[in-house]
Specification:
Layout lengths: L2 H4 L15 E4 L7 H11 L4 E6 L2 H15 L4 E5 L5 H14 L5 E4 L14 H29 L2 E6 L12 H22 L3 E8 L5 H6 L2 H9 L9 H12 L10 E4 L5
Parallel strand pairs: 1-2, 1-4, 2-3, 4-5, 5-6, 6-7
Length: 265
């Protein structure tokens, strides 16, 4: 593999794609795609931002860090477990109030893991589906009530190439992400008549701390080697595509699942 192919590109500066918009992002504390999407949203000129997470300390730290990194003062945090309907409703209510209406929702909350089907318990199956798929459904349902009433808004869901492609020990996660894709397409058709767009990104592999903890070095190296660039994506490279889908540049796109991948097969 050439040195050029393995190099990570320079971080792209913001271009005002979300100027004047308000943004709500789930599971955005930490070092993953959600936090990177939050940072990018601020760098792309959003007027106000709210992030949610289930970890109080990590959420507080994330809000503080985002303010320091981006200079945006209107950044808020709200605890939310997307498997609990009351939490979801409280999050949407807080965001609608503090952001003076939500223009963009990014459904990032999800849970993975490694387990063979023959060894997987009902509890393990349901937990991944409840957070990753049903959590996205709960957030979408609650947010659409407000967006459809206003006649505008954009939702971006975080899916995965595993919704299309098979991988051992990923049946629960792949099923959940395939469901997110289907939810995206079907809900987009229903929301279109109200002027609301719903799309999804489908990353192949984006390295972050949680993924490193949940997966073996051997597996991550194997998956990265399948990519045409010979490396995993940076989380901000996935966030960049989310920003495009959330922006007015994607005004004719709805019900689409955009692969963020350099896979050769």
């Amino acid at each position: 593999m050439s040195k050029t192919m393995s190099n990570i590109p320079a971080y792209v500066e913001g271009h005002g794609l979300l100027k004047g918009k308000s943004v709500l992002i789930t599971a955005a504390a930490g070092a993953g795609i959600g936090f990177s999407a939050a940072r990018r949203a601020a760098e792309e000129g959003c007027r106000a931002l709210m992030i949610s997470d289930i970890h109080p300390r990590r959420l507080e730290e994330a809000v503080s860090t985002l303010k320091q990194q981006t200079g945006l003062d209107a950044i808020y945090g709200q605890l939310c477990n997307v498997t609990i309907e009351d939490d979801v409703q409280a999050l949407i209510a807080a965001a609608e109030t503090q952001l003076d209406g939500v223009d963009v929702l990014i459904n990032n909350a999800g849970l993975g893991g490694q387990k063979k089907v023959v060894d997987m318990s009902d509890e393990e199956w349901h937990r991944v589906l409840d957070i990753t798929l049903t959590g996205t459904f709960r957030m979408t349902r609650a947010m659409l009530v407000h967006m459809q009433a206003r006649g505008r808004g954009t939702i971006v869901n975080n899916a995965s190439v595993l919704g299309w492609r098979a991988q051992k020990e990923q049946a629960h996660y792949a099923a959940a992400k395939a469901g997110v894709m289907a939810l995206t397409r079907c809900s987009a058709l229903e929301a279109a008549e109200y002027g609301v767009r719903i799309n999804a990104v489908s990353p192949s592999i984006a390295l972050h701390d949680f993924l490193k903890k949940a997966s073996s070095e051997e597996l991550l190296a194997q998956l990265s080697s399948r990519e045409a660039f010979g490396r995993a994506a940076e989380v901000w490279e996935v966030a960049n595509v989310m920003m495009f889908l959330a922006s007015d540049y994607a005004s004719y796109m709805t019900g689409e699942v955009v692969s963020v991948s350099s896979q050769q097969a």
